[in-house]
Amino acid sequence: MSTPSLSNYLSAQKPRFLANQGRGWTIVMGNEAGDLDSLASSIAYAWLLSHTTAPAIALLTTACQDFVLRAENVYALQLAGIGEQFQGLLCPEDLPKPNLCTSYALVDHNSLHPDYAKPNTQVVAVVDHHQDEGKYLDTASPRIIEPSGSCASLVTGLIMSYPALRIPAELATLLLCAILVDTQGLRKGGKALNMDHKAAAWLLPWSNASLSDGVLVQTTGTSVALSDHPLIQSLSSTLSAKKLAVSHLTPRDLLRRDYKEYNLNFSSSVSSSHASPMKAGLATVPLRFSSFFSPSPTSAVTAVQDWMKERGLSVLGVLTTFRSRKDKGKREQMWVVDEQSSKRQLSQSLFSGLEAKEVLQLKSAKFKRYGFKDHGKIEQSDESPFSAPFVARIYKQKNTSATRKLVAPILKQILEG
User: Fold this and answer.
1) Is the peptide bond before 389 cis (omega within 30 degrees of 0)?
2) 183: Cα within 13 Å, side-chain hemisphere
3) CATH number of 355's domain
């Protein structure tokens, strides 16, 4: 018996969900950054629920028109047989009004976004690999929060626990792509854990026979390490190139491409002039700052300030990740604070708190390294091109393994105490 394609499944689910205005359905959501891990995990877990429990649909957290910001997502969806119009995918702008769905499953994060948290809303499942926020202990089943290189590996593990289910080749391909992006192709000594290797090994035979314009051929059993498998290497290389192809994006696009936002209750020792809760944002940018600020440093600064105003942010962290000419991983950080009082209590607490975190290994840098000239010093300890009330500081990050997954809890601890 043939397995329905992923595209056919998605095309059938969306109109059914909309016809019921979500009543009786479970919405499966990834995190707001909308990366490939969240996308694949939400689609796959919704597929699993639909075939084992109750009607479910994946809600992608990215507006359909913004899919172009992540070329790796578009490429993986195309490999999974989902066309460029993405008509079978449910995006935020597609949600019915009113949305009568009250059941949510969270993947790749474990705290429901406030926009969806209503008095009658219930989180019925959590599958994640980030820091546990301790929520939904009485309602979520399963509630799986454990280390893995990719959340897609945890979702794959759940699918594997149903041996009678036959996963569509396109869905296996989508999950495999997510795992490879998050683990840098299962690279030895990288982020991949045993679960990631196990999941990828299981998905590989199920995936599409040809994954890259005829370059990749039907896979067979092999004793070669997964990271050395020709299919894995070719697919990982292509996905990595797609992910890094961002030079055409504007600074604003780069800020919102891979962005997460947090509502924090600032402690009084951090800021007595900011009402709580306040917003902080973290944007991951796959470019070095010298490229982010090029060719117009002033325009980039304006874009940062405008983004903070648009989102109502008190704090914005921009985390760069890139590879050197010697193909070594590198990271930088820039922190911008909307300092509403002249006392600069918030910025001083943030900067000193970050610099004290030995795990980050931050080394202060000067903005003039990135094309800025003659801006003068705002205070003796600062040299920043940002205009009041914004205060900024920029760093080299020596610990290149410290991703946003580590930085976010540190930010929360510093600001909330």
Assistant:
1) yes
2) 33
3) 3.10.310.20
Domain end among 208, 242, 276: 242
Is 131 found in the same domain as 61?
A: yes
Is 241 in contact with 225 (CB distance < 8 Å)? Answer: no
Residue found under tokens 């205009």? 387
DSSP letters, 84-142, are TT-TTSB-GGGS-SS----EEEEES-SS--GGG--TT-EEEEEEE-S------TTT-SS
- Which residues of the chain are modeled with pLDDT < 50? 1, 210-223, 376-381
Q: Are residues 201 and 275 in the same domain?
A: no
3-state secondary structure of 3: coil
Three-state DSSP state, 54? coil
Left if phi > 0, otherwise alpha if psi is -120 to 50, otherwise beta: which for 159?
Answer: alpha
Residue 343 has what pLDDT?
Answer: 60
- Whole-angstrom Cα distance, residue 140 to residue 118? 16
**pTM here?**
0.88
User: How many structural domains are present in the chain?
Assistant: 2
